[in-house]
Amino acid sequence: MRGSSSLSWGAAFRLAMIGTRTDSLRRALTGGAAVLVTWVLLLAFLTAAISPANGPYASDLLNLDAMRPAVIAALVAFVSVLLVLLAQCARIGGPDRDRRLAAFRLAGASPSDITRIVAADAFLSSSLGTVLGLITAQALKAPLGRLLSGRGTYTTETKIGSDSVRVDTVTGTVSLLPLDVPTPAVAIVVTAVAIPCAVAAIAHAAQWRVLSGPFEVARRSTGQAAWRAPLVTFVVGVGGLMTFSVARSILGITADQSSGQALSVGILALLAIVGMLLGTASIAQVIGQFVARRTGIPSLLIAGRRLAANPYTSSRVNAVLLSVATVAGFVLGTGEYLRVVMSVEDTGYVEILGTVRVALLIAFGVAALGVLVTCGESVVASRKSLSALIATGVPRRTLRAGLLLEAIIPLVLMLPVAVAAGIVSARGVLGTSDAKSYGSVANETIVVVPVPVPWQTGLLTVVAAWLVVLVVAWVATKFVDAAAHPSELRTMA
Amino acid sequence: MTGPLVQARDLYMAYGQTAALAGTSVECAAGETLGIVGASGSGKSSLLLCVAGILKPDQGEVWFNNRRIDQLGERERSRLRLTDLGVVFQFGNLVAELTALENVALPLLLQGFGKRQAEKAAGPWLERLGVAHRAGSAPNQMSGGEAQRVALARAFVTEPKAIFADEPTGALDAQTGARVLDALLGVARENGTAVLMATHDLQLARSADRVVSMSDGALVGSR
Predict the structure, then answer these.
(1) What is the ipTM of this complex?
(2) Which one of A27, A232, B160, B175 has the lowest number of neighbouring Cβ atoms within 10 Å?
(3) Per the database record, which ranges form the ABC transporter domain (chain B) (predicted)?
(4) pTM of this prediction?
(5) How confident is the model at residue B77 (pLDDT cuts 50, 70, 90)?
(6) What residues of B are in contact with residue A386 (Cβ under 8 Å)?
């Protein structure tokens, strides 16, 4: 009997639903992360849909029309951070699933059928999470809106004439979030479709370099040189941002052309971040090879060789963290700039930067969660080989130290690079000095005030991020005790 | 008075409701080769893992070199396996990211030897087992037989008193398996190392000095 040459999506969905408890855990965590993504994406849509009839809100970031695009951009950036976490959750239980996929291959499935099953698995889990997120968001919106309302001050803008605006500070009932805005139907449809499709696309892309054979499903990476081109992309992106304000003044571009400038900055920032993330693989490989050739410390040798053999694992683990660190660097640079440019009375920027810092802290938390998921997954994935090594006398502490070092080593270099890239980008885009005028019109003195480089806060950010990763990776290595047990040796075959 | 090198007395062990060992006793003298045979699920691997100090029996005693080891803590048993015992599994279980030379040198590095010294000692073992040409290769670049020979070199490099081998040729074809077994027993006899080998292959077990048979967690015969 003959059918069509490839697996139908219906069959792919049915095969994707087979599994063990680990698969159920993967689906639950993927679904949970999808709920978070749904909530944040809906919040972005609600922010975009704010009209004069809505509000007022506790933060001027939501009250002022000019500030809302920045809030939406930040929420969308946060969605992308959460999507990476979602993709990391979607890989949990990989080895068990890989054995099952190999059995499918043995039964006649093609490599593209396997990719389709993996994508279907991710699509189903994230669909369930998205639907749950939409239902809970709608159900909780009104009560949460009431809960998050209270007395406070807010700013109003009233147009006077054609080119003047009067700004007043008013006291009244304010809401923390725009939960009074009716959810647009298009937001529900886009969210319901976009999140599962994005996750399925990421899962599909993650099958890149994966060899699906009848006997095993393995990542094709060992011994291959990591792609060096991203480093060029990184240099172009950061270099472009560093010289942005200089280029703008040389080319005589005025600040009025803000949309074109914003697009240029966005593209350069994207190049820098993508370059840095993919470049992390090259850096991890070079450091790994360097360390492994020279060390006689077993844990460092194992960490070095693992980094050299699987460089892309490092960039996958640290992707979100490095992105957040870059944004944090940009925020630090922007903070210093605003401190110089804004007048003493204008304290609005302090509130805005405070909100951004809270958002960054949450993003760091999500990134740390991603590192925990990926490191823990790595331990569980290699539990049989770890058990065998323990059986041959390799101390658990050596294996734990190896895993810890593997997580930390690339970040020793890349975290400072990420934060520095953010700071120099902010200085490049916004400028490194401000001209201030003093005295009367007749006797005006212009003083050029340099924008200081935030060395201390930058260093503090790097050290804090290192410590967070150290703690998270240490927690993940505790999985060695739970996952690598001699009883695993009985089921080695 | 010196007793047998390895001795297990009345071992009982269960996985949940399933009994793996039911009052099993076995011993092996220094330099002796002992084959433990039995069908899948007969308890031979559990016995081997217990006497190697990898698993702890629920009841009974395990002695190694006149020292009771079943009561030792995880760290001490781990140290013992590193210095005095060698363990070989069906699939070699080498560290995938390390080269063959590094895999063999690893137990010496763990004992505190320097990199150069450890690799200098590891090299001759690769040569002795016929895989010196694979010194710089990662395990996935080797054949199953080569990887298993590297695993043997890793087990022998610390010059242990006993080697515990669980189905050491189970993943290899008959011809390669026979060559790996010859290498294992040949080196063990030259060094006076005791070998305890669990296998379901009676043909392979015949190479041992003595063979015990297991069924349902108990010894049912010996030769």
Answers:
(1) 0.73
(2) B175
(3) 6-223
(4) 0.71
(5) confident
(6) none
